[in-house]
Amino acid sequence: MKFILRAVKERMDNVKLVSLSVPNIIISLDENEDRTTPAYDNFLKALDMAGEDSCVHLEDDIILTDNFYSKIQAAIMKRPNDVIQFFSMREADLQKGSRYEAGATFMMAQCFYLPKGLSGELYNYGVEYKRSGEHNMKGCPLDNMVADFLKSRGMKYFIHIPNLVDHIEGKSIIDPRRSSKRISKTFKK
User: Fold this and answer.
1) Does residue 60 contact residue 7 with C-beta atoms inside 8 Å?
2) What is the pLDDT of residue 136?
3) Which 3 state secondary structure label does DSSP give 132?
4) Which residue stretches of the chain have pLDDT < 50?
């Protein structure tokens, strides 16, 4: 299983912190200065890097729970064939806890797991998604693309509660108009 962290140079200090807790982490550095679709292009790069392996995809704007590596491995071992999301901000997280959700509702790609073979499939889907010209590629359409992919295959994904990562507070590099407090309701350090 691979761990791939998508990063921008502005967050390299946090990348170093995350890297201390995840052995053999692979960094997918976004070197695109054009901030119109950099996160999407770097996501495609990370999917390609994962290839056919199972993979935990991470973003550079996260805080890890204590013992993150052992906790995430244990969670994945229970559901190795499911897409699993380890960050969420929904009210249902508090009310319902861990649960399956319809693929069309996927959002927040800070930390999620794709089973063997799915990163490669998602890469191919994502290249066509961008090429088609049918989708708004401004901002960060990767959440929408993943949701469309899962929906097109009739797939659900599992939301793990408590969340194993949280979102750092601060302005979004992609869109500074976003809330700086996009944080988990269930994260415990």
Assistant:
1) yes
2) 62
3) coil
4) 179
Amino acid sitting at position 47: L
| End-to-end alpha carbon distance in the chain | 24
Could you tell me the pTM of the whole model? 0.90
Q: CA neighbours within 13 Å on the CB side: how many for 130? A: 19
Q: What is the pLDDT of residue 35?
A: 53
Residues 6 or more apart whose CB falls under 8 angstroms from that of 39 comprise: 6, 30, 140, 142, 174
**Helix (H, G, I), strand (E, B), or coil: what is residue 142?**
helix
SS3 state at 35: coil
Per DSSP, 99 falls in state E
Q: 18-64, pLDDT tens digit by residue?
A: 999 999 999 999 877 665 556 888 999 999 999 999 999 999 999 99
Peptide linkage before 162 cis (omega within 30 of 0): yes
Cross-strand bridge partners of residue 29: 7
DSSP state of 187: -
- Nearest of 124, 120, 89 to residue 105 by alpha carbon: 89
| Torsion from C-alpha of 24, 2, 39, 13, nearest 10 degrees | -20
Q: Where would I find the H helices in 10-136?
A: 12-21, 38-50, 68-78, 91-95, 118-131
